[in-house]
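Predict the 3D structure for this chain.
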Amino acid sequence: MADFPAPLLPDPAEWSCPAPVRDRSVVLLGHGGGGALSAELMADIFAPAYGNEILDRLTDSATVDLGGARLAFSTDSHVVRPLFFPGGCIGDLAVNGTVNDLAMSGAQPAFLSCAFILEEGTELAVVERIAGAVGAAARAAGVSVVTGDTKVVDAGHGDGVFITSSGIGLVPRGVDIRPQRARPGDVVIVSGPVGLHGVAVLSVREGLEFGVEIASDTAPLGGLVAAMLAVTPELHVLRDPTRGGVATALHEIATASGTGVVIREDAVPVPEPVANACGFLGLDPLYVANEGRLLAFAPPEHTDALLDAMRAHPQGTGAVVIGECVAEHPGMVVARTGLGGTRVVDPPVGEQLPRIC
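Done. Predicted structure below.
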């Protein structure tokens, strides 16, 4: 029998998959995905290095007392690829992302900083267009960009434009919104259709066509939150389901509060084009990023009034109840399916769609 050379097998160290191997000593794309790897990075490296009681709350924005005022303070970096996508660009994404993080603490956003990292060789017309989007988004959100910075990196060491934005806002008296306040009996509300941003970015990045243009939902949520607080200051939790989508945000809340969450799968508003795209790509819409949606945990007696107020606001016209907070299975999120069964909604290890925000 003839001797044949042994087949060349791929090196497992070079494999890349949606759920990356976790026992590595280097940074993976999944560390930026908002899932389990991101949580481990925070718990194992950043929290021990910075450790303080404010950071330990792990909210979207920190709330601090300063000079008799209650302030919310947040920062975020934006590395989306491509820079322009249906419904927006990295510029308005940077503004809305920071404004929304402030709003999730109940704050009224006021001032932003904006730092640009530019890659050598990027066309100035592109930078001008993005800066214009930053200014327009800030005006739409009712905030001012009052400080910033610019750095340039060598060609090949960036991706055109990266933006880091920070913001501060004022938290009204009597408002205490944080994930630890979720309690059994709370209703879970989502402000509108989910999955639009992630699919919009992916479609242009990969040149995919789904028969209809899917536009990002990127938008400021400060006005919507103000309308909700006008109904009741007793909102327990607000969270914008960005990286990792609705599923990851619910897990973070369940873990922080020590409660369980039950959602009705058929109640989650997933637009048909998003559902079709996710089915084609093998994605779960619950894990796809959003940039203009919020989740709210609130006492059930305020449900009808909150929904009325949200639906009267442009950013909340599609608001619906998708589930409730329960005492059972603390720290776990489960979904009731349309067939009457239940499934556990696990937190993601990495991310389905990298470089999405």
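The first helix runs from residue 36 to 50.
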